[in-house]
Amino acid sequence: MPALFEPFQRGREHRSDGTGLGLAVVRAITLTHHGELTATPRPDGGLTVRVELPTTQMEQVPQSPASENPTLRNI
Question: Rounded to whole angstroms, how far apart are CA atoms 37 and 47?
Fold first, then answer.
C-alpha cells in the first residue's frame, strides 16, 4: 500500500484514466504542513485515505478602514 503514495502509482484495477499523481501530491502537501496521512483498506476493495493537518490559533490582525485601502477606482 505505501507504493500508492509514490508518483505515477495506480491501483491494480486501473478503473480511471488518472496519472497516478493524486495521492503523491496529497502526501507532499500533508508532509509539508507537518500532517499525517493514513490509508485503510475497505471490505469492498476500496481505500479510505485520511489526512490530518495540525491547526494553530492565529492572532487577529486589525482591519484598516476602507479609506486606507486604495482601489483602482480611487486612483
Answer: 13
